[in-house]
Amino acid sequence: MFYISTLDQIKIAYIGGGSQGWARSLMSDLSLDDRMSGTVALYDLNVEAAQKNEIIGNNSGDGRWRYEAVSTLKKVLSGADIVIISILPGTLDDMETDVHLPERYGIYQSVGDTVGPGGIMRGLRAVPMFAEIARAIRDYAPESWVINYTNPMSVCTRTLYKVFPGIKAFGCCHEIFGTQKLLAEMVTDRLGLEVKRREDVHVHVLGINHFTWVTAASYRHIDLLPVFRDFCAHYAESGYELEGESWKDSVFRSAHRIGFDLFEAYGAIPAAGDRHLAEFLPGCYLKQPETWKFHLTPISFRKQDRDRKQKETDHMVQQKQGVERKASGEEGVNIIAALLGLGELVTNVNLPNQGQVAHLPLEAIVETNAFITRNRVQPIVSGALPKGVEMLAARHVSNQEAVAEAGLTKDRGLAFQAFLNDPLVTLDRRDAEQLFDDMLSKHQPNF
Predict the structure, then answer these.
(1) Which keywords describe this protein according to UniProt (predicted)?
(2) Does pLDDT of 242 surpass 90?
(3) Residue 15: phi, psi to the nearest 5?
(4) Domain 90-110+173-297+344-447: which topology?
(5) Residue 409: CB partners within 8 Å, gap ≥ 6?
(6) Is 308 exposed, middle or buried, given 0-12, 13-18 or 19+ CB atoms closer than 10 A?
(7) What does the pLDDT read at residue 2?
């Protein structure tokens, strides 16, 4: 039974507690929320990173939360009400291989963490890690709620359920928030109305992580799909950018041209950024990023960003500084509050398919809205994807199921079949096998 004594005794277990991104966002959001207090236990294979976050966390906010770095999964999980998983499966050197080695074969990737050759390799690395985490949750915190932020979201979350079927886990992703913001800007651009909060734009979402779609949207009484059709027609060729914010200024920005193109093809709004969307389809977009006005994010950028954050971390520790008390825009703290009985919330989550997405396999991880309240996450039945999108998504679901199974059983043949079936792998079998072997042996020689 899910039970806590009082809301000042909550224990959050953070696996990946040395994080310089998600963990800092959690610290900031907890410092701004006065409904709860307790302990945040930080576990990380990089013990020093977790210890630094302990110092930063304990200098953040008003002391209602105590941060503590711990050395084992047993210690972090014992007594936990909420478990957060935010880890990097492997290293940035691994990711460099994931993203850039396929370029020798003419295969380009914009992110490399969900699908494509890079997403598959990352998934094969992540599965054993998530299997270990699932067993530890089963043994030490079986009634806790588990929030996963790690990519590949579908493969990681599916592994948790395969290893511990009784787990209460779901995946969270903020891509849909960006789509809500785009729709809010559209309402201003096309209708001249100001939308104060992106949550005021209501969206009906379904699909799989990073390939999620909006089949209905509204603001107040206004149906936004016809408005988006007009918006799309106006900006399809030029792309859409806020004044003074060029897509060229950041590797994470785009001009939404891929999203507009896919809307014209399928009649639903893609609810992810162009960098993610491009990887779910054959490589036409990825070979012309300048034309489509988005970026292939190089791992050199991620390494530079890591080094910058490490310097910031060291400075904060030396100066005994906490995080800036500024809302991150994430919904993690509101989700935790709802699970603890402090309100209700509807937001997008990734859960095993129990029929909430028609025609996709049962038990596969799908993304829809869910109703969250005390000790309950109830996915909202969302119907079917447009048929053309369903066919594309089904191929990736099949691959994700295969990667999770191959990672658990060390079935190299099954892993290669998923690799060969990915839409970005447009190679003959011999070249595909050579690339697969090279990628796998680079950082997973014992697979």
Answers:
(1) Carbohydrate metabolism, Glycosidase, Hydrolase, Manganese, Metal-binding, NAD
(2) no
(3) -95, 115
(4) LDH C-terminal domain-like (3.90.1820)
(5) none
(6) exposed
(7) 60
Q: Are strands 10-15 and 82-85 parallel, antiparallel or unpaired?
A: parallel
Domains of the chain by residue range? 10-89+111-172+320-339, 90-110+173-297+344-447
pLDDT in tens, 174-190: 999 999 999 999 999 99
pLDDT tens string 301-334: 999 999 999 999 999 999 999 999 999 999 999 9
> How much is the average pLDDT of 23-44?
96
pLDDT at 222 over 60: yes
Pull the structure tokens for residue 149: 């932020």
Phi–psi pair at 287, nearest 5 degrees: -85, -5
Q: How many CB atoms sit inside 10 A of residue 443's CB?
A: 18
Q: Cα–Cα distance between 1 and 265 in angstroms, integer?
A: 47
Q: How far apart are CA 341 and CA 36, in angstroms?
A: 11
Indicate the SS3 state at residue 276.
Answer: helix
Residues 174, 202, 234, 359: which is the catalytic one? 174
pLDDT of 76 higher than 80: yes
Please state, in angstroms and as integers, the Cα–Cα distance from residue 124 to each residue in 51, 229, 423, following that order.
29, 39, 18
- Tokens (6 digits) for 169: 């886990």
Q: Which CATH class is domain 10-89+111-172+320-339?
A: alpha beta
- Please state the pTM of the whole predicted model: 0.96
pLDDT digit string, tens, across residues 191-208: 999 999 999 999 999 999
SS3 423: coil
* Structure-token pair, residue 269: 């709004």
Is 202 catalytic? The answer is no
Residue 86 corresponds to which tokens in the numbers above? 């935010």
